UniProtKB/TrEMBL annotation:
Transmembrane annotation, as ranges: 36-56, 204-221
UniProt protein name: histidine kinase
Coiled coil: 62-89
Molecular function per GO: phosphorelay sensor kinase activity
Catalytic activity reported: ATP + protein L-histidine = ADP + protein N-phospho-L-histidine
Species lineage: Bacteria, Pseudomonadati, Bacteroidota, Cytophagia, Cytophagales
Keyword list, A-Z: Coiled coil, Kinase, Membrane, Transferase, Transmembrane, Transmembrane helix
Length: 288
């Protein structure tokens, strides 16, 4: 209150958080009732000014967000383009390599029929089998990357598939003078035959590759009402499971096993390996 009996009202508001400057408006208020109308108008204008400034801030922030969104959309489009190029590249690899490897395999079969089991042919056969297996792994890995892995489940007997895989690696088994003991049961599962065959090939090939000469590989197949298990175990000659084969801490000794673990997940199963960094690993394939 001043000396004349009137009041004055000061309106103070913050213009922005980043700008700490304040705006102060001093409005005289007289004792007369008519003056209160001007007071209300002045307060309303001050509030409208503050609201307009806040709206300006929101619009500026919205522009920043729109700019960031466009930048993200551009990056996503570039990533999608790169992924499409990568998919096309792997597709070309599948088509370009499949035919030559198939021809090489056919030539090997023809040579074996004419020349018999020569040591040179045995080494050649092992190289062809390794190349064929790795090519199949590349193909399935690329299909997973493209989310194009086809699944065609049907009822198959796992024991029959396992025997076929053992026969496929007969040359490798003979080279190391290994003994394969297959303790089998009839185990019929609704599963993709090509996919599970690749998993069995990777698992047995790994067991063969780390085995010592004259060793034993035990394959056990158990089919229960609630669970099916196929276990491949290396039994070395005079070798303990503590003997290191690979440096500890390595994520996996076999890309084929990593791929097979992913394929097992997609077939509603699980792959587990024990003593992976030794010459006596145990690989378990299980399905609920």
């Amino acid at each position: 209150m001043n000396e004349k009996g009137a009041f004055s009202l000061s309106v103070v508001f913050l213009l922005s958080v980043s700008n700490p400057a304040v705006c102060q408006v001093t409005i005289p208020i007289l004792s007369s009732t008519a003056e209160f109308g001007f007071l209300g108008t002045a307060i309303a204008l001050a509030l409208l000014g503050l609201l307009a400034y806040r709206l300006y801030q929101l619009q500026a922030r919205q522009k920043v967000l729109i700019s960031q969104k466009k930048e993200l959309e551009t990056q996503v489009a570039q990533l999608q383009h790169d992924a499409q190029r990568q998919n096309a590249f792997f597709s070309d690899i599948r088509h370009d390599l499949r035919s030559p490897v198939a021809n090489l395999t056919n030539e090997l079969v023809l040579l074996k029929s004419k020349a018999g089991h020569l040591p040179e042919l045995a080494r050649f056969e092992r190289s062809v089998q390794e190349l064929n297996l790795r090519l199949d792994n590349i193909i399935y890995w690329s299909l997973i990357q493209q989310n194009e892995l086809p699944l065609f489940p049907r009822l198959v007997n796992l024991a029959d598939l396992m025997r076929e895989v053992i026969e496929e690696f007969d040359g490798l088994i003979s080279q190391k003078s290994l003994v394969i003991k297959f303790d089998e049961q009839v185990a019929t599962r609704l599963i993709d035959e090509i996919l599970i065959t690749l998993i069995l090939r990777n698992s047995l090939y790994y067991a063969i590759s780390v085995a010592l000469a004259n060793g034993v590989i035990l394959i056990s197949l158990r089919h229960e009402p609630v669970r099916t298990e196929l276990i491949i175990t290396n039994i070395g000659q005079g070798v303990t499971s503590d003997e290191p084969l690979l440096p500890q801490g390595k994520q996996s000794s076999s890309p084929g096993l990593l791929l097979s673990a992913e394929l097992m997940k997609r077939s509603q199963g699980q792959l587990q390996i024990k003593n992976e960094f030794s010459r006596q690993p145990s690989i378990t394939l299980s399905w609920p």
